Amino acid sequence: MNNEVEKISVFRYTGESENVTEDVVVREVPLTIVLDGHELVTLLCSPSYLDYLAIGFLYSEGLICSKDEVKQVSVDDVRGVVHVETFRHKTDTGEVVKRYIGSSGGRGLSLYASSSTDGLPKVDSSLRVTASEIMSLHHEFQHHSEIFLATGGVHSAALCDSKNILVFAEDVGRHNAIDKILGKCLMEGISTRDRIIAASCRISSEILIKVAKRNIPVLTSKSAPTDLGVKLAKDTGVTLIGFVRGQRMNVYANEWRLNDARR
Amino acid sequence: MNNEVEKISVFRYTGESENVTEDVVVREVPLTIVLDGHELVTLLCSPSYLDYLAIGFLYSEGLICSKDEVKQVSVDDVRGVVHVETFRHKTDTGEVVKRYIGSSGGRGLSLYASSSTDGLPKVDSSLRVTASEIMSLHHEFQHHSEIFLATGGVHSAALCDSKNILVFAEDVGRHNAIDKILGKCLMEGISTRDRIIAASCRISSEILIKVAKRNIPVLTSKSAPTDLGVKLAKDTGVTLIGFVRGQRMNVYANEWRLNDARR
Which of A78, A131, A170 is nearest to A262 (CA)? Predict the structure, then answer.
């Protein structure tokens, strides 16, 4: 964690007093992802698990589909570059990168801009959960969020089963926090089948799409969803739960996965 | 505001009870910006002031520099497209768009990924403010945030002088909220000289750069900054104030603009 925050001096007003004091702010660094020698994208992120972030990003964007395609991942912390080498021919990757950048209208985020679920399969999972499981997962989740507690500046995400947090990540970017988890799962062979993603962030369409593409059946957040997030959750079969706070929560889509729901 | 939220039915757990109830979620729509016939980017945003958003985005990204360059802005609400026509030749714009997409590494956000202030001028303003002015601006600012109060799902931003809110915007994307303000200022001829931007969001490098590029001397937020946001504020001369809450606030950079600071 120490690498992810920085101590700085601030001028603090408190109504009664004003003084110079030490404060902790979250770090934010540019990270360039280079795929087979082709510069793909530069993200702003928290400087941890940059390898998982790069792999998760490529995975979410459909530029790699399995661990077997990845030959090598090397992180240059100082320059803020991750080189990902695949078993593809460099020229083939060049074509892929060109098409990707072209198709995304210059934004580098191909599917995100779409409000349709074309190309998104229905989530295939018979997982059931209870409201109390979700609430106690979020209770644990909140206690995991060390950097946020210190700085108020990052988003957290976690892959969970119905009882425990399995993988946890934090980042200044909410997309990055999810991608770090998905990247770690891919590289470490951690199954996402019948799992739950807990998040601290608002659930926009982009976040929902990342989760649905990985066939993860439940997405929970302490924050609000957008209408497009709810629509896509309904269409893809993701159980979407928002405002998980204390003993309260709202289920926005596919409440049939809640065992104790009165249906 | 009605256009920006949607009523949906949710399954609500409260510990004691579970029931189906009506809830309000914030809307999120894809918006494609077409510049002189060239598709530039698709943003996800709240469906209000799409013309200002498009113009503000182009302005922030350096693709237009003044109102005089803009011939026409037409919004197609149904398809989610804003067509911006300039006085440039279509072929020239084609080159600009191509270079822009290329230079941004496919992300469509050219300057954002840079941690340097190359190309960013020093803010030129002798504005002074007091801590109590900032606190009372934020008090008013919070009361303006209607959609957030209803849905918990948007970011707000405002252009202010030291006493009043002059322009206010909300959006599911924090960059968009700022761009809507800057776009409105450009199109309506509202000066940003010696002004203050108040925001609800975390201050990342991207937000700081947008503000510094417009020569706006003070940026305040109820949330945290990142270290890169603080560094860029110091470099560009922006007075950066975070965690403005009630009678408290932290000044992270250029505190000399605070009249009552003990220096």
Answer: A131
Residues in B touching A229 (Cβ below 8 Å): 25, 28
- Angle formed at CA A19 by CA A16 and CA A25, multiple of 5 degrees: 115
pLDDT tens profile B105-115: 444 344 444 44
Residue with the two structure tokens 């510069």? A39
pLDDT reading at B150 higher than 80: no
CB-based contact A42 B107, cutoff 8 Å: yes
- Main-chain phi, psi angles of B160, to 5 degrees: -135, 155
- A197 touches B at CB < 8 Å: no
Say which residues have a Cβ less than 8 Å from residue A147's Cβ, sequence separation at least 6.
Answer: A1, A4, A5, A26, A46, A153, A154, A170
pLDDT per position as a tens digit, B164-186: 999 999 999 999 999 999 999 99
Residue B143: CB atoms within 10 Å: 10
Look up tokens 């019948």; give the residue. Answer: A194
Angle between helices B50-60 and B174-188 (to 10 degrees): 90
Q: Is B86 helix (H, G, I), strand (E, B) or coil?
A: strand
The closest CB to that of A11, out of B39, B225, B255, belongs to: B255
d(CA A132, CA A125): 20
d(CA A172, CA A13): 26
- Name A158's bridge partners: A168, A198
